[in-house]
DNA sequence: ATTGATGAAAGTCAAAGAAAGTCAAAAACA
DNA sequence: TGTTTTTGACTTTCTTTGACTTTCATCAAT
């Protein structure tokens, strides 16, 4: 049994018992499983992607930690369907279509769409393509999964 | 829970109950929370910045103290006030502080904050600093301005 | 009334500490 | 062989600590 699988299993069980949210200290977990800390990053990067329905955020520095949340079963399926059909580049136009869908499905409000349209416009992101559309894709997925988890 | 966060919380609650003005003795506060006095300076420097709507002034010497007060942005437009004072680089942590401001001012909902926190996290943006904080600053400003226009 | 000493505040700044992140080489596996 | 996993050296971010500095008030001596 691979250590990565063991850690993945452990985290997912922990999440089951915990309403879909866990908060861990990377170094503690590494100690617990006798592996290097960056192994935890590997597990998170490969097993807890947005596309799988997980939102991750973390803080560095003293008192820092990593939090992982799972999408809520209710209402999550439409969003996850979109997230999984998004690909890893999303143009501004495409984003509009996605947001239109979510708006008419009643999942996002008009204000919420506005925030994303403003924040993830070409002007806001600033960089050139293809980088820009890649950043937008990641940002949009993260935003949506974060919202419903 | 970090001691800095505890102190921040304490001061903000105190300010709530006190009409937006508090006056503290740095050394007493440090004693009360079992930390060094300069920790108080750290909390004030990171959590009570001007751009978050606080004004700090202090007197040294015998009988000295620190006064912190909430400043209402004149003209009433809190969003524009924040956007104008944001600077052209915003860290993830700073964004949290800004969003907290907007949340407690009743300008953004919790969902709207979640969208931005997820969409503009380090993970979502992907690139390295200093570029990352610059993109986040632009994106956040654009999102907020777009929202109110 | 001026000066000077003393002590009581707060301020500054950089080092140390505490976390997480990155990246690519090495190893294991299919 | 090509992909996935493991490892570890190095980096970044944030917090805590403490030595040193500056400012102010008071009081005693001129």
Commentary on this structure:
Two copies of one chain form a homodimer. With 149 residues, chain A is mostly helical. The first copy, chain A, folds into two domains: 3-70, Transcriptional regulator CtsR, winged HTH domain (Phenylalanyl-tRNA Synthetase, Chain B, domain 1, 2-Layer Sandwich); 74-148, Transcriptional repressor of class III stress genes, C-terminal domain (Non-ribosomal Peptide Synthetase Peptidyl Carrier Protein, Chain A). Chain A contains eight helices and three strands. Chain A has a three-stranded antiparallel sheet with strand order 1-3-2. In chain A, helix 2 packs across helix 3 (37-47) and helix 4 packs antiparallel against helix 8. The radius of gyration of chain A is 17 Å and the shape is globular. The structure holds a DNA duplex (30 and 30 nucleotides).
| Record field, number of beta strands of chain A | 3
Q: How much beta of chain A, percentage-wise?
A: 5-15%
Number of domains of chain A: 2
State the order of secondary-structure elements of chain A, H for helix, E for strand: HEHHEEHHHHH
Question: What fraction, in percent, of the residue positions of chain A are helical?
Answer: 55-70%
CATH domain topology of the largest domain in chain A = Non-ribosomal Peptide Synthetase Peptidyl Carrier Protein, Chain A
Please report the first level of CATH classification, the CATH class of the largest domain in chain A: Mainly Alpha
Overall pLDDT of chain A: 96
Rg calc of chain A: 17 Å
Number of helices of chain A: 8
In the CATH hierarchy, what is the architecture of the largest domain in chain A at level 2?
Answer: Orthogonal Bundle
Major sheet attributes of chain A: 3 strands, antiparallel
Termini separation of chain A: 30 Å
Q: Can you list the strand order of the major beta sheet of chain A?
A: 1-3-2
Spans where pLDDT lies below 50 across 5 or more residues of chain A: none
Q: For this structure, what is the CATH homologous superfamily of the largest domain in chain A?
A: Transcriptional repressor of class III stress genes, C-terminal domain
Q: How would you describe the oligomerization state of the chains in this entry?
A: homodimer
Q: What is the overall silhouette of chain A? A: globular
Main interface by residue count: A-B, 34 and 31 residues
